[in-house]
């Protein structure tokens, strides 16, 4: 019962991370599950659903097919859909029921590709892991297959200007409130060309030209394996971090220019150079409850974003004792002594007990406990689309750029930051009145 979530939410699942990364790339994406999974994805985790066309479907798994192991039904349905839609690729992922039945997703993918001639990928997901693991599956498989090995035939720019690939850009971490545009504007102001923004405003053909970039900027831990693949193939260094706040905007540009010159990978907020990017399994942290820091300020969220917030607090605001609670399963080398990686509600409650300040999605406010004087920690709302979906989208700040320093300063110095009504309640309020 320890893993039961009484009052908290869960992060977007691994198969939704796959859908989010692949959404704009022109492929047929199928979630193998009973009806309902697709509506959950497009309602809560995919803000592009009503504005950008895509081919994301649910297999409509039924009880008889599960009991009898009728994989041919899935295979024939996917082939029929592919014949009608002519996708650039096919991707199938599994929810919990196929996992229990030991469905061979990769084997099914090989059969579909053999019959259709269309590149097909099978992802062994489980709908229980977070979107970060699902996103890394896509980056690992797609960049390995679609990015060609350099053989001298590729046209590589001889321009003296620096170009970058932005890895890990999806609405799950950046939403659609202007952060992606601000990210591109930041690099334009720095005089750095964006070769490819994976995968918002990006095509599959642009992804195949990833070799043209001098540096890969990892904007979310869901793309860590993508940086490793591109480093192995082309020797392209990676810089892990986001331009959040005044100090980070200056420092990130400096790190990118250094990496473009010496070919070494770097982390924002660390003096260490990364000689090689290890596989994802080595990036899963062992930061446990036993070694956690106590008190101070706690930031909850995806590792690279949380590290960006910490950088602002420490370097722009001069705040000390800032720690990260990462519930998304991959630390992206951003965690340090005193930080923790936990997912269970009971463990999160233990970590936050005694905290002076908590910066997190508004849902986490529910789990805060009062101190001996009856006071709650100071809470700063930074909604996360991958956690609360569309509920608080209008409250997500533009966290890219120098202006984030002033925004966060105002929140730190203000009284308790509360959201009285969420976006869904605003929409439904007229209907409640009519009733």
From TrEMBL:
- Kindly list the GO molecular function terms attached to this UniProt entry: oxidoreductase activity
Nitrogenase/oxidoreductase component domain ranges (all copies): 29-332
Q: Which residues form a coiled coil?
A: none
Which protein is depicted? Oxidoreductase
Specify the species: Mogibacterium diversum
């Amino acid at each position: 019962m320890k893993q039961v979530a009484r009052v908290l939410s869960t992060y977007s699942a691994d198969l939704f991370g796959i859908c989010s990364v692949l959404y704009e790339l022109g492929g047929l994406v199928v979630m193998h599950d009973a009806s309902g999974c697709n509506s959950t994805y497009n309602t809560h985790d995919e803000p592009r659903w009503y504005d950008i066309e895509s081919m994301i479907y649910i297999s409509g798994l039924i009880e008889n097919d599960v009991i009898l192991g009728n994989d041919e039904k899935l295979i024939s349905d996917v082939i029929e859909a592919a014949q009608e839609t002519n996708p650039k690729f096919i991707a199938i992922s599994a929810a919990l029921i196929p996992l229990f039945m030991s469905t061979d997703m990769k084997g099914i993918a090989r059969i579909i590709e053999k019959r259709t001639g269309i590149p097909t990928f099978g992802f062994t997901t489980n709908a229980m892991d977070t979107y970060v693991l699902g996103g890394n599956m896509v980056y690992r498989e797609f960049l390995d297959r679609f990015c060609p090995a350099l053989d001298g035939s590729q046209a590589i720019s001889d321009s003296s200007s620096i170009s970058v690939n932005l890895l890990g850009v999806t609405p799950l971490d950046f939403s659609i409130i202007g952060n992606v545009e601000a990210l591109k504007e930041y690099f334009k102001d720095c005089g750095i060309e964006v070769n490819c923004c994976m995968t918002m405003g990006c095509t599959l053909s642009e992804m195949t030209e990833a070799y043209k970039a001098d540096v890969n900027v990892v904007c979310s831990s869901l793309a860590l394996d993508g940086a490793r693949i591109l480093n192995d193939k082309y020797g392209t260094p990676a810089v892990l971090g986001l331009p959040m706040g005044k100090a980070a905007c200056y420092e990130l540009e400096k790190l990118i220019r250094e990496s473009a010159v010496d070919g070494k990978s770097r982390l924002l907020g660390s003096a260490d150079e990364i000689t090689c990017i290890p596989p994802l399994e080595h990036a899963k942290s062992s930061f446990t409850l036993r070694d956690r820091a106590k008190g101070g300020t706690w930031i909850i969220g995806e590792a690279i974003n949380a590290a960006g917030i910490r950088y602002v607090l420490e370097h722009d605001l001069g705040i000390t004792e800032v720690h990260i609670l990462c519930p998304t399963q991959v630390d992206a080398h951003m965690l340090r002594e005193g930080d923790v990686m936990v997912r269970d509600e009971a463990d999160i409650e233990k970590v936050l007990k005694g905290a002076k300040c908590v910066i997190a999605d508004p849902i986490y406010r529910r789990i805060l406990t009062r101190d001996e004087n009856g006071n709650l920690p100071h809470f700063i709302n930074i909604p996360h689309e991958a956690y609360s979906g569309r509920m608080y989208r209008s409250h997500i700040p533009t966290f890219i750029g120098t202006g984030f320093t002033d925004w966060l300063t105002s929140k730190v110095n203000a009284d308790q930051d509360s959201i009285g009504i969420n976006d869904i309640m605003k929409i439904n309020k007229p209907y409640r009145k009519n009733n």
